[in-house]
Amino acid sequence: MGSEEKSRVGAQVITVSSGKGGVGKTTATANLGISLASLGKRVVVIDADIGLRNLDIIMGLENRIVYDLVDVVEGRSKLRQAMIKHKRFDDLFLIPAAQTRDKMSVSPEDMVQVTDDLRQECDYILIDSPAGIERGFRNALEPADEVLIVTNPEVSAVRDADRIIGLIEAAEKGPGKLIINRLKTDLVRKGEMLSSDDVYDILGLDIIGIIPEDELVLSASNSGVPVTLNMNSQAGLAFNNIARRIIGEDVPFMNLHGNPSLLRRFLRLFDGR
Amino acid sequence: MPEELFSIKGTNDGLLVSLSTTEKWQSVTDALAKRIDDKRAFFTGAKIIVELGARPVPKYELSSLKALLERRGLSLSLVRSDSDTTRQSARSLDIRTSRNSGRAASARKPSLGKPADADATGSRGVIFRRTLRSGRTIHSEGHVVVFGDVNAGAKVVAAGDIVIWGKLRGTVHAGALGDESAVVCALDMNPNQLRIASYIVTSPPGKRSDILPEVASIRDNQIVVESRD
């Protein structure tokens, strides 16, 4: 935004957004946080969905919450006190959203302040953006160095992603990268679902990961043990691959039942486009 | 003469409506209201930037202008003025304000595409150098050129021609003030809805295998789309 150059020392701030609700933002944030931590990175995930908090449940940390983001912003708690350490990873922390307040309790400037205070302490800060294009989204977007846009291969989700990408570009946070979530390869093959190529064709954004539909995700989210921790899960593996791409590794796209276009997509992404 | 009471110009930020600084406020706003009512299709959903020059506009006058626009479904997004009184009025109505001079300088920057704007008859236009994504609307009293795609959910409305150097998936309305000679060109023509003057067509469903640059125009009282060789 402002004229002064933002200092990029310390952590990279990555905001996960979507526009449409229910496409898997929170699931993606939790899984990427865990994957990055399992790769040895120090990670803080922030739930910016104030009033409708979810991230703590999916990460299995709900019963450990004492202070939340609004407490930090309003000075009732120190940042450290609101950071909940994950059960398995000592270098993974969650700053939960407040359940009882709304999005107006936090301003975009507050979010910049919080992330700036955290930058020295960790490698990655992941922000789970609320659905919509209003204040909550603005809060999540303002401190972002990079934006990941989650969409499903459905026309309505892609339309909303397009809208969000326009707003991200207008805020000069663009172009962002795309996560296509819940792809059903059998439906794509029958021509009943948009393919990743179709989504790329509409949005024109680099794809950083494609998550196949996987029943294990739901049970994992309900039990508070995100699916990346399950070695048998295709979706978990796909999230793990995204995390490795985030830290700069060159990871080929998974072969989702021999779809040749995925290989091309991968080449386009990494061969200098 | 409405031309002397106000002028309208398409900009990247919305429609810039410059009101006369000398004519009576009532006659200026009456004329503006009449123009909007006459050309409803052109104005629909537009963001309006009002330029008031040095005229001091009290709060009640500005408030009535805002109401006038809002009744017609238009949003008053910015008031440009050199008068402290006017800016004070705008602020108390929760409307964004800016000084004319400073704003005018920065506003001129986006129209580096000027040479392409003026044609023989002097009608103006706007050039966009990026993809228009869903939710974005462009209005121009002249022509519109987009170097990029017009995605589904985006909308372009022009009194003149519309040229899309990219994929057309959204809604376009050429000749929006009634010019039936207006045309729409696109490299890949597959609009959600295409209008020229008062005619409307939608794209046939299904994917096409051959994608060619095409031109839409009115012939024999209907819109025809054809490739040019």
Can you tell me about this structure?
The complex is a heterodimer of chains A (273) and B (229). Chain A has 273 residues and is of the alpha/beta class. Chain A has one domain: P-loop containing nucleotide triphosphate hydrolases (Rossmann fold). Chain A contains twelve helices and eight strands. Chain A has an eight-stranded mixed sheet, with helices on both faces. The radius of gyration of chain A is 18 Å and the shape is globular. The N terminus of chain A is likely disordered. Chain B is α/β, with parallel strands linked by helices and 229 residues long. Chain B has two domains: 102 residues, Alpha-Beta Plaits; 103 residues, Pectate Lyase C-like (3 Solenoid), CATH 2.160.20. In chain B, 25% of the residues lie in helices and 34% in strands. Chain B has seven helices and 16 strands. In chain B, strands 6-8-10-12-15-16 form a six-stranded mixed sheet. Chain B has a five-stranded mixed sheet with strand order 1-2-3-4-5. In chain B, a hairpin with a 2-residue loop joins β15 and β16. In chain B, α4 crosses α5. Chain B is elongated. Classes of the chains: A alpha/beta (273), B alpha/beta (229). The interface between A and B is small, with 9 and 12 residues.
